[in-house]
Design goal:
Helix content: 40-55%
Organism: Arcicella lustrica
InterPro entries: Glc/Gal-6P_isomerase, GlcN6P_deaminase-like, GlcNAc_PI_deacetylase-related, Glucosamine6P_isomerase, Glucosamine6P_isomerase_CS, LmbE-like_dom_sf, NagB/RpiA_transferase-like
Structural class: alpha/beta
Largest sheet: 7 strands, parallel
GO molecular function: glucosamine-6-phosphate deaminase activity
Number of helices: 20
Number of strands: 17
Shape: globular
Strand content: 5-15%
Enzyme class: hydrolase
Keywords: Hydrolase
CATH class of the largest domain: Alpha Beta
Bound molecules: fructose -6-phosphate
């Protein structure tokens, strides 16, 4: 039960209109610092009153930065964990505590090994007890928490299916700590950690919803666009066992801590004009009008004064006077985004085109985080730029080696082996590398980290595929650059932070090519992901190079990664594709054979990459069509980045 006297006070602040108090931060780093501060405050307060602080902790990618900040507070500000007792939410079952994917190991690596907490004060559900002993274990786990007076704070992440802890959809509000069968979404999301879906355990031991609801304070964190939909459902939807996180709507001292991306589907973000006064700048008008047209299923030019008034846009109407004027302004601005000349059209005026006409032949540098992002996300535009005579370079930022399956690597090693035997080629270095790789792969344990020679093999497989795509699109091999940014080379999902060496590599290629156009992956869907780090390296390089003369002529266009598209109101360049061009792009994507047929990082979307790309590009074309524009087969979309 919540004891009023012990409940940690809510700071006074503006609370949004959602059914759960929500605070939205610029990014995960800022949000995590605030949460770490809150935990530190609880630890200090409890210590001052001579009591231990009882913390409920979560694992997963979300709270990592909170733990990093707690370690920092311990090391540089003397925050002591001597009097801290922790209870983790869950552990896979079965799971050895020292396994790479174990939550026991995670907590040691992310927090416990770096602070002065006594091992006996750290409690994590078991992954090793025999089945028949689990019921007793779970009962005792809850009893231990109760004996200590309950959890002072429970930190939560949220699954894309709405789970908290491993309380999967269907879990009841009074569910106890127990063995739980994992939902397929959860298992698919974990597949990357285990190498493949079949190796993800089917069960886990989790603290129940009841124990979570009894915590005196609950803080749920969610970062990244991939959490946006479930966050909307948990905060704005009905309380339902279908989304266990929605139970938190009934908690008396809860807060959701979000970044901009995870908050992006909330009504207050999607339709801010319904909640507050807004500044009607061009972007906001475009957002409101496209939203209105799509929700009423009417083309923009058919929207009436009444449509505006009846749908919360009377304020906008009052500013402009007539629907006709607003409609026209938005329609034209969208019309001007559409171009078949992504590098500019030198024989026509560029007054209403997204790109400059001159120089007629531009130097173009496409950054591709992985070896297939260029073709998947902007294959049609890539082809047009080449066909329209621009000097197109591609820089593949990382090797992408961890996305190659072991079987695939062995297939290539076999090929090379046969090749070497047949031609009796003496190449000591290569033979050693491949022999070493084969020996490792033949004995590789589940999710053991690949040794450098295996990563090398997997890396050259992906390089070969990228080269094949570039040949197919028609650029010379001298325009293909493999940057192999070092931050990526851990052999694991967890990458190193962006380093000086990475930034130098990216800056050097920009300085070498002096591009008029840069295309980069502006994918923020996964804040921990490779795309974001690759983008940060580009942004930092642009910052460093911006004083160079040639940078005055450099425009930067951002494409989205494989998973999502820009919102229609954000798009600044829309490049249409004909059915033939769509097919050509498909064949370009086919060059990436190692990424076909159930890849290592499939996610919960069973479609192949070419299918995702086609669905997405045709969906964008559909949106333009619904808003009243011509019916294209597909459209690739870009946003301009001003540095
Ligand atoms: C972890 C846990 C899970 C995660 C959730 C989100 O202990 O109980 O509920 O919080 O699956 O995982 P990430 O943070 O990896 O997106």
């Amino acid at each position: 039960m919540i004891e009023a006297t012990e409940a940690i006070e809510l700071e006074k602040e503006t609370i949004s209109l959602e059914r759960v108090p929500t605070k939205i931060y610029k990014d995960a780093a800022e949000a995590s610092k605030a949460v770490a501060q809150e935990i530190a405050k609880i630890i200090r307060k409890k210590n001052a009153s001579g009591k231990p602080a009882v913390l409920g902790l979560a694992t997963g990618s979300t709270p990592k930065k909170v733990y990093a900040e707690l370690i920092r507070l311990h090391k540089s500000e003397g925050l002591s964990f001597e009097n801290v007792i922790t209870f983790n939410l869950d552990e896979y079952y079965p799971m050895q505590p020292d396994a790479v994917q174990s939550y026991h190991r995670f907590m040691k690596e992310q927090l416990f090994d770096h602070v002065n907490i006594a091992p006996e004060n750290c409690h994590i559900p078991t992954g090793t007890l025999p089945l028949e002993k689990l019921a007793i274990f779970c009962k005792e786990y809850e009893a231990q928490i109760e004996e200590l007076g309950g959890l002072d704070i429970q930190i939560l992440g949220i699954g894309r299916n709405g789970h908290i802890g491993f309380n999967e959809p269907g879990s009841l509000v009074n569910s106890k700590t127990r063995l739980m069968t994992l939902d397929i979404t959860t298992r698919m999301d974990a597949a990357g950690d285990f190498g493949t879906l079949v190796k993800v355990p089917r069960r886990a031991v989790t603290m129940g919803v009841k124990a979570i609801m009894e915590a005196k304070r609950v803080v749920l964190l969610a970062f990244g666009e991939h959490k946006a939909q479930v966050i909307k459902e948990a905060i704005e939807g009905p309380v339902s066992e279908k989304i266990p996180a929605s139970y938190l709507q009934g908690h008396q001292n809860v807060r959701f801590i979000l970044d901009e991306a995870s908050a992006s589907e909330l009504s207050s973000r999607k339709k801010p004009w319904l909640f507050d006064e807004v500044i009607w700048d061009k972007m906001m008008v475009k957002k409101a009008v496209t939203n209105l047209a799509l929700s009423l299923d009417k083309p923009i030019l058919k929207l009436t004064n009444r449509d505006y008034n009846e749908n919360g846009l009377s304020d906008l109407l009052a500013n402009y006077g007539q629907a006709y004027d607003i409609n026209l302004q938005v329609f034209q601005s969208l019309q001007h985004t559409i171009t078949g000349w992504p590098g500019g059209k030198s024989l026509a005026s560029d007054a209403n085109r997204p790109e400059r006409a001159f120089p007629a032949q531009k130097r173009v540098l496409i950054f591709s985080p992985h070896p297939d992002d260029d073709i998947i996300s902007m294959g049609g535009t890539f082809q047009r730029l080449v066909d329209q005579g621009h000097d197109v370079h591609v820089a593949y930022q990382t090797s992408g080696n961890i996305a190659v399956a072991d079987d695939e690597a062995l297939r290539f090693i076999d090929f090379l082996d046969d090749f070497n035997t047949a031609f009796d080629i003496e190449n000591k270095k290569y033979n050693t590398v491949f022999e070493e790789a084969r020996a490792f792969l033949s004995k590789k344990k589940d999710s053991e980290i690949d040794i450098p020679s295996v990563r090398y093999v997997k890396g050259i497989i992906r390089q070969g595929e990228a080269k094949a795509t570039c040949r197919f699109v028609g650029i010379p091999s001298s325009n293909v650059h493999f940057l192999d940014m070092p931050f990526y080379e851990t052999g694991a999902i967890q990458k190193m932070p962006l380093g000086e060496a990475d930034i130098k590599i990216v800056s050097n290629i920009i300085a070498e090519i002096k591009p008029h156009q840069i295309f980069a992956a502006g994918d923020l869907a996964d804040p921990h992901g490779t795309h974001k780090v690759c983008l940060d390296a580009i942004f930092e390089s642009l910052e460093r190079l911006k004083k160079e003369d040639y940078m005055n002529d450099c425009w930067v266009w951002l494409y989205r990664g494989a998973w999502a598209e820009w919102d229609i109101h954000e798009i600044e360049m829309a490049v249409p594709m004909s059915p033939t061009q769509v097919l050509q792009k498909r064949h370009g994507i086919f060059k990436h054979q190692s990424q076909k047929d159930g890849v290592v990082f499939q996610g919960n979307d069973s479609r192949e990459f070419w299918q995702r790309a086609e669905d997405r590009n045709s969906a964008t074309a559909d949106l333009y069509n619904k808003l009243g524009f011509a019916e294209y087969a597909a459209i690739e979309a870009f946003v301009r980045y001003h540095f």
